[in-house]
Sequence to fold (224 residues):
Amino acid sequence: MTATAPVRVVIADDHPMFLYGLKAVLAAAQEVEVVGEAATGEELLRVVEQTSPDVVLTDLAMPGLDGTAATRAILNRHSSTGVLVLTMHEDDETLFGALRAGALGYLLKGADRAEIIRAILAVASGEALYGAAVARRIVNFFTDAQQQYAAQVFPELTGREREVLALVAAGYGNHEIARRLVLSEKTVRNHVSAITSKLQVHDRAAAVAAARDAGLGKGSPPRD
Fold:
């Protein structure tokens, strides 16, 4: 049986000691092989051209061409290469900028060896993988965006009523809505009644239809 070839990785960071430590961490893992390193975005592009790695593991804040711009340039030329970000920045602008550029993974510095290796292997397979803190920010971003959209579509509803409507439209029953929002079932029923009255629809099913027509709650309810 032929052993699986290690994932070929290029690493980039403008802090020499961090780059040295990262290289040492990866060198101890049989699943990966570091085939190049860089300290700037421009150098990263040159190293990628020379080595054609499976995965690029890069910081974002680097002198000259930053990691986000480098990611975009790499993927324009090497679409099969996976880019994994390893950075200290977790603000939404930086995070979503990197994801829009095409990064498949996003970890914060401080991630342990096992998490970094797991992310490299996932990205090499074409999967997206994010650290726990980053994943929460992504979920919160889209949850907030949905709430803002719902406020525009159903301005007559209160914030709590919009939350209830989104869950009703997603297929949840009163008991599950009560559990998720830490309310009594009676309170949920009252909210549903207020929603149908304000939306001027006859029943729960009509409220669901109105919500789904507006783009809320489509698909099956997610599993816990």
The first strand starts at residue 7 and ends at 12. The chain has ten helices and six strands. The chain has a mean pLDDT of 86.
